[in-house]
Amino acid sequence: MSTLSKEHIKQLVRENNFQSVSDVNAYLKDIFKDIIQELLEAELEAELGYAKDDVANKNTDNSRNGYTPKKIKSEFGEIDIQVPRDRKGEFQPKIIPKYQRNVSGIEEKVIALYARGMSTRDISQQIEELYGFSLSPEMVSKITDRIAPEIKEWQQRPLEPIYSFIFMDAIHYKVKDEGRITNRAAYVVLGVTIDGYKDILEIWIGDNESSKFWLGVLNDLKNRGVQDVLIFCVDGLTGLKEAINAAYPKSEVQRCIIHQLRNSFKYVPYKDLKAFSNDFKEVYHAINEEIALEKLYELKEKWGKEYPFAIRSWENNWDVISPFFKFPEEIRKIIYTTNIIEGLHRQFRKVTKTKTIFPTDSSLEKILYLASMNVVKKWTQRYKNWDRVLSQLVIQYPGRLEEYI
Asked: What angle do CA 80, 82, 87 make, to 5 degrees?
């Protein structure tokens, strides 16, 4: 496709006396309209086999039959065109199909704005400001509803047979349900493949977070092809370990160390918090489980009488804390915290911060799905030092990875 030369552009500017960007847009709008009109005429000419003013070469019993006015929406605003007709009614334009009235790619723009967290009303106003035609909030909502089949397909897509790590957490929202405001949980599952790449496996909208719902999530993963998971990284929801064991009995469950520390620190007043947290570093920085337990008992001797609940939560949850200590630094960095999924939640909050209440579950699902797709596009790098991580996993979990490598 050829481009205009600088001299041609200078000539256009001189001839049209452009004074503003609006003048340029108006000119481009007229040019766009003329081009569309000429393309329609050319299509009908090719269909009939003779030019408008060349009846002598007509070799068909069909002929032109006037025009049908049509208003189309474009990136330059609304444009009135005249669609040529043939007498037999056989002409089907390809440049602008019969029932198409939008040639601006406006639907993609609406969905992109919605994915960034704009309300349907804000999108409606922005479209009018940018393109000069109105699009009601209801129409914006209908446009975004068109991604529903895409969401369903994504939710049902086959998954990998094995994941090295899976992180699970929920983020909470308020949704209208038959006129009442209810608390809903978006259950988020993020997986790390055996090649070291992150992916969002699923987002489910359900009742407030519960181990029963998580079990349903885990069973859905199994039904979609996930046969094995080496390590699940989770927070401290009661019953979650049991749900994981029921669905994936061979998997290890690793409690997020950061969540565990936060849970302990809430029992310690500010005056002792710094000293207490410094002492605790010796526990989770220990080179193995034996030394970690020694440091925990030393901590208990020093602080146990004053803050028994802060220590007890580590003792009670040691079975889901201790797997951490058998791994080298590369793997500890991955399972030390569920920050990876909390980072995803921060992206969700960015696009949902203007919406205190969602009208339906599906409206919440739409925006979280679109936000997820934007995040996943940026996950192009695998975890650092993945070769060393994988070598460790092969040794720690013999017989479970070899057939997939």
From this structure: 155
